[in-house]
Amino acid sequence: MSNLFNIEKLKTRMARADVDRGLYSIGSYGEGMFCISTNSDGEWETFTGERSQKFDLKVWPNEEDACLAYFGRIAWNDWR
After folding, report:
1. Domain-by-domain residue ranges, the chain?
2. What is the pTM of this model?
3. For a Cys staple, 54 with which of 36, 47, 49, 73, CB 3.0–4.6 Å?
């Protein structure tokens, strides 16, 4: 089953929205960035990387939910 919104679509949307690459990391931890990745249990996580820690950590049941929440967070941060 394919997701309606996934990591590849997220990357495309971020590029189209011209979001500064220094603000986010897709697929791995990034210091001082909004991040989305999978953990060792295969769960999806969104968080802010600070001082080698994951702050505002949220765990999602699937890729689509994580990607939608992540994109919304980036859009909200850019808007304010």
Report:
1. 7-79
2. 0.85
3. 47
Dihedral angle over CA of 5, 16, 69, 67, nearest 10: 40
Closest CA to 38 of 78, 13, 1, 70: 70
Q: For the chain, what is the HEC assignment?
A: CCCCCCHHHHHHHHHHCCCCHHHEEECCCCECCEEEEECCCCCEEEEEEECCEEEEEEEECCHHHHHHHHHHHHHHHHHC
pLDDT tens for each residue of 8-53: 999 999 999 888 889 999 999 999 999 999 999 999 999 999 999 9
Contact 29, 35 (CB under 8 A): yes
Give residue for tokens 């802010």.
48
